[in-house]
Design brief:
It contains 11 helices and 14 strands. The longest helix is centred in the first third of the chain and has 22 residues. The chain has 2 domains: about 230 residues, YjeF N-terminal domain (Rossmann fold); about 80 residues. The chain has about 325 residues and is of the alpha/beta class. The two termini are about 45 Å apart. Helix 2 crosses helix 3 and helix 3 runs parallel beside helix 4. A 7-stranded parallel sheet has the order 4-3-2-5-6-7-9, with helices on one face. Strands 13-12-11-14 form a 4-stranded parallel sheet, sandwiched between helices.
Length: about 325
């Protein structure tokens, strides 16, 4: 099970880590930067990039601070440049600290202050990391950020978003038309709801979660949404005995479908078999050819519109007597019989 956070819950997780568990904000940012650095190193090895050149795009918020922190670690191994926007005076203490350290390390840093700066800037790199805005951003972008994204999206490179791609609303999944199209997203604490909704599904690439060293129960206590994985669903299914038969695993009767919507009945019946039902009886006006051979079909009388006819009552009542589980409705239509 993967917990999902909204932007407000993300901020609450940060505040809980700092105020309740006394984890300094500087340490959270350091852990974020180190996680991004280690993940980027994995991507470099995975893609077998020799002597890679990295470009890190930073804003003046805490997302930019994660980018500056990551740059410090990556610069010890690779050729790193930083292009940043915004103002030093708007930086949080943690962000400014990492900005100042990166500057002191003499990592090449370029301050993009105008459209002319962006137009002239060489964004070419083997990997571009996006730390422009983070979870606080929305799809309502304008100015330099849009100009930067337009150029970065056109470059043949590997794009890694830190927390969420810039231009994506991390709550709703709506996105600016020029939002970053990332190949990978490394997000802090947990997946964000917007990464799984609307345009967010296509913008995040492969999703990875960074652990910032705070207690896991912070997230489980705060999150109101969870993403179920295969192992979670499998754990809900009863174990099958090594010596058993189909009669030990229940009888499911499915009343579904119509000549207009035959596929709904097939999908429902096939799903019942796949989750482990012993016997599945499908009652439908038409039996779709995709129905699995293990399913026991009964073709019901239908009216002139192709929906279940009232004359089907006797077949339905006979089948119900066999059922442990009865499912009614998929594709049945709203026609009166």
């Amino acid at each position: 099970m993967q917990f999902i956070l909204t932007p407000n819950e993300m901020r609450l997780a940060d505040r809980t880590a700092i105020e309740t568990y006394k984890i300094p904000g500087e340490l959270l940012m350091e852990n974020a930067g180190r996680s991004v650095s280690e993940f980027t190193d994995e991507i470099i090895q995975k893609n077998n990039i020799k002597n890679p050149h990295l470009l890190i795009l930073c804003g003046n918020g805490n997302n930019g601070g994660d980018g500056f922190a990551a740059a410090r670690h990556l610069a010890n191994k690779y050729a790193v440049r930083i292009a940043w926007i915004g103002s030093e005076i708007k930086m949080s203490p943690e962000t400014y600290q990492n900005f100042a350290i990166a500057n002191q390390m003499e990592i090449p840093m370029d301050h993009l202050e105008s459209e002319i700066d962006v137009d002239k800037y060489d964004f070419s790199a083997d990997i571009i990391l996006d730390a422009l805005i983070g979870v606080g951003g929305t799809e309502d972008l304008k100015g330099l950020v849009v100009n930067i994204l337009q150029k970065v999206n056109k470059i043949k490179t590997i794009r890694i978003a830190i927390d969420v791609p810039t231009g994506l609303n991390s709550e709703t999944g709506f996105a600016h038309p020029d939002a970053l199209i990332s190949d990978y997203t490394i997000t802090m604490y947990a997946l964000k709801s917007g990464m799984l909704l609307n345009e967010g599904i296509n913008l995040c690439g492969e999703k990875h979660i960074a652990n910032l060293g705070s207690p896991d129960k912070i997230i489980s206590n705060i999150s109101k949404i969870a993403f179920l994985e295969d192992i979670d669903v499998a754990s809900l299914l009863p174990a099958r005995k090594r010596i058993s038969s189909k009669f030990d695993y229940g009888r499911v009767v499915i009343l579904a479908g119509s000549k207009r919507y035959p596929g709904a009945a097939a999908l429902s019946a096939n799903a019942a078999i796949k989750i482990g039902a012993g016997l599945v009886y499908l009652l439908s006006p038409i039996i779709h050819p995709a129905v699995l051979p293990e399913i026991i079909p009964t073709e019901l009388p239908s009216n002139s519109n192709g929906f279940i006819d009232s004359n089907a009552k006797q077949y339905i009542l006979a089948a119900i007597k066999k059922a442990n589980v009865l499912a009614i409705g998929p594709g049945i239509g709203d026609n009166e019989t």
